[in-house]
Amino acid sequence: MSFEILPATKEDFKFFIPPLFKAMGLAHFVATLWPDNQTEQGQQRAIQRFMTEMDDHSGIRWIKAVDTTATEADDSRKIVGIAQWAVFEPDRTYREVPYYAPDDLWPNKLERDYAIHLWESYIQPRRKVLREDTLPVVNLQILCVWPEYRKRGAGGQLVDWGNRLADDLNAVCIVEASGMGQPLYEKFGYEVQELVGLKDDARFNRRMDGTIHRFMVRPRRKAI
Ligand SMILES: CC(C)(COP(=O)(O)OP(=O)(O)OC[C@H]1O[C@@H](n2cnc3c(N)ncnc32)[C@H](O)[C@@H]1OP(=O)(O)O)[C@@H](O)C(=O)NCCC(=O)NCCS
């Protein structure tokens, strides 16, 4: 089996959002931030949100790994995995897309507040780099390969695609890594800079013990 990496378009969302939510793992994180992710309505909301994000941020690049050996009869347009990279260039100003938190998505205000708190904790190091470090920065925001296609190199190809883009721009790469992703990123030149947990808040400190993600950085090709 071999994989080709191609740009993913808005047309592809309906094919890859359902398997993406199914395959992501990261159960606590995904269920808290996307509580409706297993419903059709929730997946439609996610598609809408990702489309808006693309309209608001010209640096968003979705790419897909496709199985080149799949036959015409295979479904889902042969997509076996997906990545979302975001490019932040120095000559642009980027509006940070606010976390999507409509009032009716959680059963009560406390659960909604917790989702916002988890997101605010998650995003801290990324925000710091984007505000304080020298751009360009390239951020791997989402990476997932469907379980039945893992351990065959697709994840590595999706990472390598973004690394090459970063090298062309002489950009720093950053990623909020899961435990599963960490060894792969290490193989591709990233190092753990920080273990990120929940910010202190007495209401939520017992909700989650330990690490939300490992903030990893790959230096730019040439010092500037
Ligand atoms: C992390 C993830 C994207 C990796 O995808 P993947 O397609 O399995 O990645 P690769 O196949 O390139 O690499 C995984 C391993 O398979 C090995 N591998 C690659 N090609 C192989 C092949 N042809 N045969 C055997 N092993 C192979 C790699 O060397 C690597 O080894 P390691 O686990 O010892 O480091 C995938 O596990 C995933 O989607 N996880 C859930 C979501 C997630 O956590 N995403 C990361 C969020 S930051």
Automatic annotation (TrEMBL):
InterPro entries: Acyl_CoA_acyltransferase, GNAT_dom, Trichothecene_AcTrans. Residues 139-191 form the N-acetyltransferase domain. It comes from the Eukaryota. PANTHER family: GNAT FAMILY ACETYLTRANSFERASE, N-ACETYLTRANSFERASE DOMAIN-CONTAINING PROTEIN. This is N-acetyltransferase domain-containing protein. It comes from Paraconiothyrium brasiliense. The lineage of its organism: Eukaryota, Fungi, Dikarya, Ascomycota, Pezizomycotina.
